[in-house]
Amino acid sequence: xxxxxxxxxxxxxxxxxxxxxxxxxxxxxxxxxxxxxxxxxxxxxxxxxxxxxxxxxxxxxxxxxxxxxxxxxxxxxxxxxxxxxx
Length: 86
Hints:
By secondary structure, the chain is mostly helical. The chain contains three helices and no strands. The chain has helices at residues 2-7, 10-66, 71-85. Helix 2 (10-66) crosses helix 3 (71-85). The longest helix has 57 residues, at 10-66.
């Protein structure tokens, strides 16, 4: 009778709870190894979209910098530098 109680006791629940993080990291690694190209493609799309946004900001910022306001030009330059670092 004690053998039946020990097989379904709290120790088996603890084992399942502690092994959850290992299986989660294994699943995450497997997903990233299978879908890595999609992750990089997504990052590339975001960088291209930000660069397309930076072009009008740079154009307007260069015109505004003629009048003495350089913060818009600096913001556009920061966006371009960020996109090139991705």
